[in-house]
Design a protein that fits this description.
This protein is an alpha/beta fold and about 325 residues long. The protein is about 40% helix and about 15% strand. The chain has a seven-stranded mixed β-sheet, sandwiched between helices. The chain is globular and about 65 Å long.
Length: about 325
């Protein structure tokens, strides 16, 4: 039996309402089903997610279904999948998203032709039947470049602000180099340190055109919708981003971008925390206070001067407590 061209890592929890569509689209990626390996992780589901995974696994010559009796979270489940990658290429897919036909065939071919470490693509969001194209924030297409040159400028959207793990394909050498994995145990914002590490330490990448990945927005079980303590992991994730950047040989060059990201995203989480319970909101604010307190004053003040008024007003009370004038 031939070695698969692409391994698809598909973790899901309680995705029974959508995962049938997700899995069905995987049957339309290659003319030869043996070109794809499915690694599906049932992460503690209480619905028929696992049943559907096993049913579709029978349709692929290469397939494994991993069952976690209790949820490990998306980061840890993706790491489980990385241990089962076969072939030269792999990608991630979430249980409520789906792909247009031949997407992976195109991406596998372009990864081989361009010879780079990873490819990124645009994606399409789907909410209440409305589809919206979201471009990858990089102006050059079909051209191999340095991932770290796609991090700046600090105050505009760049590729580290486009952290979606499923928006592309990767060469397996990233696994060998220790760049493909996620911080174990992170339940949210797991893609933030992941994307920074990838862009600072991988050798080459490209943004290419391909059949679309469609991303459902507004799904009630998505962590972007819930307001429980899993959201507190944002603080740990962004703290890790600062650690990664500070350890880089060009930390002075990239630290302003990391500070911008921390402050802009912290303002968003402060607004979101208003819908949390009082005790959880207090924990979030305490965590964000510690995170903001890590920021170098010069860079933080420079970023603050360029933030829009609403974000400055949201951040001001916490910034004052850590000695940064707002």
């Amino acid at each position: 039996m031939r070695t698969p061209l692409v391994t698809v890592i598909l973790p899901a929890k309680d995705a029974g309402a959508y995962i049938g569509t997700t899995l069905e689209t995987l049957t339309r990626q290659f003319d030869d089903p043996a070109s794809l390996k499915l690694v599906a992780i049932d992460d503690g589901s209480r619905d028929d997610t696992g049943t559907l995974m096993r049913r579709y696994a029978e349709r692929f010559p290469h397939a494994e279904v991993i069952v976690n009796p209790r949820p490990k979270g998306l980061a840890s489940a993706r790491n489980q999948g990385l241990e089962h990658v076969e072939g030269d290429a792999f990608c991630f897919l979430d249980g409520d998203d789906w792909m247009q036909p031949q997407r992976l065939s195109v991406l596998a071919r372009r990864l081989n032709e361009l010879g780079c470490d990873f490819l990124r693509t645009d994606h399409v969001t789907v909410k209440t039947g409305v589809r919206t194209l979201v471009p990858a924030p990089y102006p050059w297409r079909e051209t191999v470049g340095s991932p770290r040159e796609a991090i700046l400028p600090d105050d505009e959207p760049t590729m580290v602000d486009y952290p979606f793990a499923w928006a592309g394909i990767m060469h397996r050498r990233l696994i060998d180099q220790g760049l493909a994995g996620f911080t174990p145990g992170l339940f949210t914002a797991e893609d933030r340190p992941w994307i920074w590490r990838l862009h600072l330490q991988a050798r080459s990448f490209a943004v290419v055109d391909a059949p679309a990945l469609l991303y459902r927005r507004g799904v009630s079980t998505s962590l972007t919708q819930v307001r429980d303590r899993r959201q507190l992991d944002f603080v740990r994730a962004m703290g890790e981003v600062l650690d990664i950047v500070e350890a880089d040989a060009e930390s002075d060059r990239f630290l302003p971008k990391a500070v911008w990201s921390v402050m802009a995203l912290s303002s968003r989480h402060l607004v979101r925390s208003r819908r949390m319970t009082p005790s959880l909101r207090g924990e979030m604010r305490a965590g964000l206070r510690g995170l903001l307190g890590r920021l170098p004053e010069r860079e933080a003040s420079a970023v603050l001067s360029r933030l829009d008024g609403p974000r400055r007003r949201v951040l001001a009370p916490l910034l004052r407590t850590v000695g940064i004038a707002a």
